[in-house]
Amino acid sequence: SDGSIRLHQMSSEHPLMQWNDSTSGQPITALQWALTRPAVFFVLDASSNIYIWDLLENDLLPVAKQTIPSENVLTMALLGEPGKTNGLLGIALAKESGEIDIQYVKKKWALP
Question: Which candidate among 57, 68, 74, 95 keeps its CA 20 to 30 Å from the CA of 48?
Answer without folding.
Answer: 57
